[in-house]
């Protein structure tokens, strides 16, 4: 038995909110209830007069490194991107999801794409992209919503899906007065200074519901339930029989303005959170699957433009599952 395996309490069901996915034969537009808002109070979503504008709406971390997915066909792991400020559907003539990939070389089985829970759509792949870059496109007009749009890339039918995704955007012909501004570039560091790599270890994190965490003396922390871990907690604060819900906050102070890769080091085991560990970086949520036999592993959360006081939070309060962490590193994008 692994040091933190086999301690799952009775499962009352999957308590994570799931987005419904329509049947394969259904229309991609989702039915909605009638709008009871008085006509005079409804927002004006009518197209602007004249021809449409060619607009690009970029995802968070657009200019950062490509993210890697390495998972089997039943894994819940997904690469998650958020595209903000998309206009109302009535103002769009066309909308195409565009992204860069690497090693997406198995057409029809490499991976799947979900747009706001709608899907799966087949991940564009090409045998010529074996260990090579590629560019994928997908018509997503019927799956978009006004404002923030969630784009997810998951594994396909292969026994092991391995590919990288980045530079995700929506290119649209939009009947608007002007296109939404592109994400701001990283702020300029003060003269004579430069961004530096910084790491905070699990022993220096700030925990909530500390009794549900096993904070070991020399290697890592994890949420647990059973009494077999009572002797493993370095400070003796762990209590068996808890709900395995809490948070671990890594508080970086006076971060030099720049774009950073955010790296999470943790201990992977087969009994980790089946939804993926939820890490929140400066308010942006993204899950990292820790269910594997790779033991101590470095995972790239993604990239972010950071400045000043930055909190990276492992939020284990959403599900009664086991999450792990060793350290969090902010690494400047060179």
Describe it.
- The chain is mainly β and 334 residues long.
- The chain has strands at residues 53-58, 67-71, 79-86, 92-102, 111-115, 118-122, 133-139, 147-155, 161-174, 198-201, 206-208, 213-215, 221-223, 247-268, 277-281, 284-288, 295-315, 324-325, 327-332.
- It folds into two domains: 39-174, Jelly Rolls; 198-332, Galactose-binding domain-like (Jelly Rolls).
- The strands form four sheets. Strands 10, 11, 14, 15, 16, 17 and 19 form a seven-stranded antiparallel β-sheet that branches.
- 33% of the residues are buried.
Radius of gyration: 22 Å
Integer average pLDDT: 82
Number of strands: 19
Distance between the termini: 42 Å
Strand content: 35-45%
Number of helices: 0
- Judged by helices, strands and strand pairing, the structural class is mainly beta
């Amino acid at each position: 038995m692994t040091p933190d395996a086999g301690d799952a309490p009775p499962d009352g069901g999957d308590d994570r909110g799931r987005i419904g996915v329509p049947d394969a034969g259904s229309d991609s537009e989702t039915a909605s209830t009638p709008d009871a808002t008085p006509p005079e109070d409804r927002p004006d979503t009518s197209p602007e007069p004249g021809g449409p504008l060619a607009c690009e709406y970029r995802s968070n971390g657009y200019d950062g490194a490509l993210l890697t997915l390495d998972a089997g066909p039943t894994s819940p792991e997904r690469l998650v991107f958020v595209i903000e400020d998309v206009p109302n559907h009535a103002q769009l003539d066309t909308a195409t999801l565009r992204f860069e990939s690497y090693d997406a070389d198995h057409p029809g089985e490499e991976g799947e794409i979900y747009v706001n829970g709608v899907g799966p759509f087949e991940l564009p792949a090409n045998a010529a992209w074996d260990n090579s870059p590629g560019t994928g496109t997908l018509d997503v007009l019927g799956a978009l919503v006004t404002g923030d749009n969630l784009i997810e890339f998951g594994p396909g039918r292969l026994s092991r899906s391995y590919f990288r995704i980045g530079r995700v955007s929506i290119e649209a012909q939009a009947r608007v007065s002007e296109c939404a501004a592109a994400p701001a570039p990283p702020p300029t560091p003060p003269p004579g200074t430069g961004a530096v790599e910084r790491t905070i270890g699990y022993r220096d994190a700030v925990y909530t519901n500390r009794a549900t965490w096993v904070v070991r003396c020399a290697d890592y922390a994890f949420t647990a339930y059973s009494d077999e871990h009572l002797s493993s907690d370095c400070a003796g604060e762990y209590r068996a029989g808890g709900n395995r819900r809490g948070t671990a906050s890594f508080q970086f102070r006076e971060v030099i303005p720049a774009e950073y890769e955010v790296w999470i080091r943790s201990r992977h085991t087969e009994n980790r959170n089946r939804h993926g560990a939820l890490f929140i970086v400066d308010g942006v949520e993204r899950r990292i699957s820790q269910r594997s036999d790779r033991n101590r592993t470095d995972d790239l959360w993604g990239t972010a433009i950071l400045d000043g006081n930055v909190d990276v939070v492992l939020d284990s309060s959403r599900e009664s599952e086991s999450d792990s962490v060793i350290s969090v590193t902010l690494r400047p994008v060179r």
